[in-house]
Write a structure and sequence with these properties.
four-stranded mixed beta sheet, Methyltransferase, Cobalt-precorrin-4 Transmethylase, Domain 2, 21% strand, 4 domains, elongated, alpha+beta, Heat Shock Protein 90, 491 residues, 15 helices, six-stranded mixed beta sheet
């Protein structure tokens, strides 16, 4: 912010009737531990009271609100041998992009710390979260009612509405966001002037108007339309990584997608990412009667839908990692941070849920993904048409967070599949039949694997494996063996 904007903000804050739980005045105390505790408390209190920022200001006499100035110089201050700002940055978890402002107001030197609200978890100093109770700073765990209310606040505020970058001038917004691509993909006519463009972006909630002709860029605006995600500190690690390996392990990395589009927002980079994945895949040799010509190993629709899913359903609160596609000689893994909201075994047929509904809705508007739930159905249908092994959907447990992974497998004949692969394919086929208002039979499963009628007994044994595993069930036990139909266990 400019000195004028800082003074205008100070005047606005001084007009408040009293010091709030997200605002603190200081005249002298510059103890680093005290500052860190206050930053934690102010960020958490700002979230609790639905404010985008908390503020800590030096140079104001607390009782009288008199402007007295300060000799505190935070950018020159140190904690031990370390610069104070750097020490605060790594002492507070999760990482939060607070800003230090120094300026002169009415002839007096002033300092203002601008602290973004805690967005997905309480801000902690050395493992301890703090909160403001009136004008007093307390440990959050000592006030379970406040702690519960704070977590409820996190649940109510979607990632998309959070602020990726605050207090940006209009021309800078149009540099940071690819507004032309944005409006084109949303089928919105391009206005002829800057004000009109900014108004359209605000209407779509990609930016938020602020006093003085300034703007905040929302997470939704940045993650979809950033010209360069590296300019948005907390989102820089959320670009889609695509790595191709030589062989079936990570020992030999052959190539990584590092073209210019890889750093742009998802709307801009998605088509290029899918094209790169397709270019790195080996071709599939014809198998069975279904294939007459050489084709790519995996169907395009499966690549597109699983790539879109890993972007849309990721947990943006998991720090330090992002969505990833890894291509091996015999499989492709698509991984995103966060455990799924629906059990992986119910990806086909369950009521769909989205962690980031605003992001999903916008990507559907731009035809970058299917309606909720239909992407997985299309993926598995395409896999069956290619007579490939069934994809595997799993949760990868980690100490601090979980990951969701979808794996596509290279062609493999039925005789070469192990029991787990056969059962998974049978179950997914039963699910597809059910959601399509059909029933799985020996004949439909033979068609799925490209097995001729004389191989019916082989398919019967496969169905028996699935029945024993409890993933499918017989629709009507009284029907003879030739007329039997099967359902997924949950139907």
């Amino acid at each position: 912010m400019t000195p004028e904007q800082l003074s205008a903000l100070l005047t606005e804050l001084l007009a408040l009737p009293h010091e709030t739980e997200w605002l603190e005045w200081k005249r002298g105390n510059t103890n680093p531990e005290m500052i860190a505790e206050r930053l934690s408390a102010l960020a958490n209190s700002a979230a609790l009271h639905e404010h985008d920022f908390g503020y800590m200001i030096w140079g104001i006499e607390n009782d009288t609100r008199k402007i007295v100035g300060t000799d505190f110089r935070p950018r020159q201050a140190k904690k031990g041998n370390e610069e104070l700002e750097n020490w605060l940055t790594h002492s507070l978890q999760p990482h939060i992009g607070f800003r230090i402002n120094e300026w002169t107001h009415q002839g007096q030197p002033m300092v203002l710390f601008e602290i973004p609200r805690a967005s997905h978890a309480p801000l902690r100093f050395q493992g301890e979260a703090y909160i403001r109770i009136g004008s007093v700073t307390k440990k959050l765990r000592e006030h379970p009612d406040k702690e519960a209310a704070l977590w409820a606040t996190f649940a109510r505020k979607p990632f998309e509405t959070g602020i990726a970058l605050a207090d940006i001038a209009g021309p800078d917004v149009l540099t940071l966001l690819d507004f032309a691509q944005c409006l084109r993909m949303l089928n919105i006519p391009l206005p002829t002037d800057q004000v009109g463009i900014l108004d359209k972006l605000a209407d779509e909630r990609l930016i938020v108007r602020q006093p003085g002709g300034r703007y905040n860029i929302t997470n939704l605006g940045a993650i979809l339309f950033a010209s360069d995600l590296e300019k948005f500190e907390r989102l820089g690690r959320k670009t889609l990584r695509i790595i191709k390996y030589k062989g079936n392990d990570k020992a030999n990395r052959e190539r990584e997608w590092q073209d210019a589009p890889s750093r742009t927002g998802y709307a801009n980079s998605f088509a290029a990412a899918v094209a790169f994945i397709q270019s790195q895949l080996p071709h599939n040799e014809p198998i069975g009667q279904a294939f007459r010509t050489e084709i790519k190993m995996y169907p395009d629709v499966a690549i597109r839908e699983l790539a879109a899913n890993c972007l849309i359903h990721q947990d943006f609160t998991v720090a330090g990692t992002g969505p990833m596609v890894e291509i091996y000689a015999g499989r492709m893994e698509i991984t995103n941070p966060g455990k799924p909201l629906v059990d992986t075994g119910r990806f086909i047929g369950a009521t769909p849920q989205s962690r980031n509904e605003g992001l999903a809705k916008m990507m559907r508007r731009m035809n970058l993904c299917e309606e909720l739930g239909s992407g997985i159905v299309k993926t598995v249908k395409a896999i069956e048409m290619y007579q490939l092994p069934a994809p595997n959907f799993e949760v990868i447990a980690m100490p601090q967070a979980g990951f969701t992974r979808a794996t596509l497998f290279a062609p493999k004949k039925l005789a070469a599949m192990d029991s787990q692969e056969r059962i998974r394919a049978c179950y997914q086929h039963a699910c597809l039949c059910h959601v399509s208002e059909r029933r799985m039979t020996n004949a439909t499963l033979r068609e799925r694997f490209g097995v001729e009628a004389k191989g019916a007994s082989q398919i019967s044994r496969l169905i028996r494996e699935a029945l024993d595993a409890g993933v499918v069930k017989l629709l009507d036990p009284s029907v003879g063996s030739k007329g039997r139909c099967y359902l997924p266990f949950w139907a």
